[in-house]
C-alpha cells in the first residue's frame, strides 16, 4: 500500500543519552494492522520512560524500537477491521497499547495489570517518527479545547499523574505533597488544585519550584526542608528510592504515599515507628486503564489543565532527552516533526 519512507528515531544500543543510543533512520511508513490506525504524528511528548528505554533502565522489548508514547496526530490510514474513525480524525496515542481483554485483571477492570499488556514505544514503535500506528480501541479522542502540542504530555505524564493522584487517596480539600515536579507532577498539581487541595511541592530544581508557585502551590521547597504541614497524601514522581522514607515521614497519621514512576532506585531500609506505623501506606502505580485516560482528558479540558511545553524539532530528539535528564527545562518537552 504505502511504499513511502519516513524519518524515525531508533534505539540502536541502549546506553547513556550523553552518547548515541538513538539513531535517526529512514524506514517505510508502517502498515496499520487489521484493527489499527495509521497516525501522522503532529506532536510527541518526551517522557522519562523514553529515557529509561534509551538508557537501559527498562530491558529491550523490541530491537531498534522507536520510542514515544505521547502522540497527538491525525488518522492517515485504517486497517480493514477498523470502524468509527475517518481519515483526518485527531487522535491521541498513549503508553498502554494492548491488553488481552480476557485475564482476571482485565475482567475486573484492572487492565493496567494485564500480564499480556503491550506498550507503545517499548513493545511497538512509537511517536519519535513522522508516522506511527495504534490499535483503534486504544486510541483516544481528544477534546477540542486542547491544542496539539500542549495535549501531547497529557497522554502519559498527565494520565499517570492523574492515576497517581487517585491512588494516593487524597481526600477533598486535603494536603498533598509532590516530590519531584516535572511533566507529570505539574499536570497532577493542576487537577488537585482544581479539586480544592492544598499542594506542597518538594524538588531540588529551582525553576520547577517557581513553576509550582505560579500554578498555585502553597509552598515549594528544596529537599532539605520538610513541607510546612503534615500531608494527607504524597506522590513520589522523582525516580529516587531514597525519597521514600523522606516522604513517609512527612505524612500525617493514615496518610498514603503513591509511587508514580515505572522505575525507582532502591528504597533504603524503612524505620517502622517513624515511616510506617500509624497506618501509613505505600502504593505503587502501574500504567493506567483506558477509563483513567478518558476521565483525565475530560477533566483536563474542564479544569483548563495546561502543560508547560518546550518544543524541539523531531530531528533534535536526543537533545530533548539529554535536557530532560539534566533537568534543563520545567514542564515537558514535545517533539514536532517537520
Ligand atoms: Zn488481561
Ligand atoms: Zn510516559
From TrEMBL:
Catalysed reaction equations from the record: a primary alcohol + NAD(+) = an aldehyde + NADH + H(+); a secondary alcohol + NAD(+) = a ketone + NADH + H(+)
GO cellular component terms given for this protein: cytoplasm
Cofactors demanded by this protein: Zn(2+)
Entry's Gene Ontology molecular function annotations: alcohol dehydrogenase (NAD+) activity; zinc ion binding
Domain called Enoyl reductase (ER): residue spans: 15-335
Enzyme class, spelled out: oxidoreductase
Domain of life: Bacteria
CDD domains tied to this protein: CAD2
Keywords attached to this entry: Metal-binding, NAD, Oxidoreductase, Zinc
Transmembrane segments: none
EC number: 1.1.1.1
Residues making up the signal peptide according to the UniProt record: none
PANTHER family assigned to the protein according to its UniProt record, in alphabetical order: ALCOHOL DEHYDROGENASE 1-RELATED (PTHR42940), VACUOLAR PROTEIN SORTING-ASSOCIATED PROTEIN 11 (PTHR42940:SF8)
Family according to the record: Belongs to the zinc-containing alcohol dehydrogenase family.
Listed name of the protein: Probable alcohol dehydrogenase AdhA
